[in-house]
Amino acid sequence: MGSDDDGAETRTTDADLRSEVRRVLDSARETNIVLRATGGLAVWIRCPSAREAPLRRDFKDLDLVGPAGVAQPATALLESLGYRGDEEFNQLHGHQRLYFWDAQNHRQLDVFIERITMSHELDLTNRVALDEDTITLADLLLTKLQVFEINEKDLKDAAAILVDHPLDEGGIQVDRITLVLGNDWGWWRTATGNLDKVGTYVAGLDRFGGSATVAGRIEELKKRIEEAPKSMRWRMRAKVGERVRWYELPEEVEG
After folding, report:
1. Which distant-in-sequence residues (6+ apart) come within 8 Å of 111 by Cβ?
2. Are 225 and 192 in contact (CB under 8 A)?
3. Residue 1's pLDDT is what?
4. Residue 99: C-alpha distances to residues 40, 63, 207, 252, 254 (Å)
5. What would the pLDDT profile of 94-104 be if each residue is shown by its tens digit?
6. Which contacts (CB < 8 Å, 24+ apart) does range 51-57 have?
7. What is the pLDDT at residue 104?
8. How does DSSP assign 42-99, residue by residue?
9. Do strands 107-113 and 62-66 pair parallel, antiparallel, or not at all (unpaired)?
10. Which residues of the chain fall below pLDDT 70?
């Protein structure tokens, strides 16, 4: 516990991001501010397999999601918790994303507003608060599958979600995934290709007993994706196929 130059009391951030995400989420809940975790720390919260080898991984930053209108209260909360907002970035982009810096631990915190945009856009309107602490498992899996240049961290996270949670209403809600992918051929192309990469990755993991479970759930998920209705927009874009690039390559925010 410390104080700033004006004598206002501030709280120091925790060096362990796993403890820090709990601190931030608990503080948001206590002040009735809707914020949910996404990214690797959200997978760590929801998936026991993400806490043990071979799917355990390190974390470098903290990603949150909030609904429209959360920018002002979230900024006040995070600054009281020891974060410094990037005023210029947040003024320009605060309707869709906020950027904060933890100077004490030299790491960043991002707040996405209703949408998570990487290679594709995941619209979370009216979905942010559906689950406690994190976005839903289906949405969390989609954030991993939407990255065209998928890396090992994303592969580990997707594998942890798939091995720990069944494809049902109490786990990974497939209807949500099929709805998103059935409306956008590019989304579908990236996500289904990444599901194959997750399967290949876990098949080659040493000391991983869940490869058969992951493979089975990938097969079932792909089957249901293929059988799900496709929009006219999807069908028209499918005719163009890979002749035109179907994904974006997001740039990291620097600060």
Report:
1. 35, 64, 65, 66, 70, 71, 74, 78, 97, 98, 100
2. yes
3. 37
4. 17, 10, 38, 11, 9
5. 899 999 999 99
6. 53/207, 54/156, 54/205, 54/206, 54/207, 54/208, 55/156, 55/157, 55/159, 55/160, 55/163, 55/208, 56/156, 57/152, 57/153, 57/156, 57/157
7. 95
8. HHHHH-GGGGSTTT------EEEEE-TT-HHHHHHHHHHTT-EE-HHHHHHHTTTEEE
9. parallel
10. 1-10, 251-255
Q: How confident is the model at residue 10, as a pLDDT?
A: 56
What gap in Å lies between CA 232 and CA 114, rounded to an integer? 25
How far apart are the C-alpha atoms of 19 and 27, rounded to whole Å? 12
230 HSE (CA, 13 A, CB side): 18
Give the per-residue pLDDT at 2. 43
Alpha helices (H) in the chain, listed in sequence order: 17-30, 39-46, 71-80, 87-93, 137-145, 152-164, 174-182, 185-203, 211-227, 232-240
Q: Identify the pLDDT of residue 251.
A: 67
* Run of H or E including 11: none
Among 51, 54, 25, 28, CA closest to 40: 51
Spell out a b/e string for 196-224, using b for 16 or more CB atoms within 10 Å of the CB, else e.
eebbebbeebeebebbebbbebbeebeee
- 17: number of Cβ within 10 Å: 22
Residue linked to tokens 């720990």? 164
Backbone angles phi, psi at 30, to 5 degrees: -65, -30
Per-residue model confidence (pLDDT) at position 141? 98
Q: Is 0.85 topped by the overall pTM?
A: yes
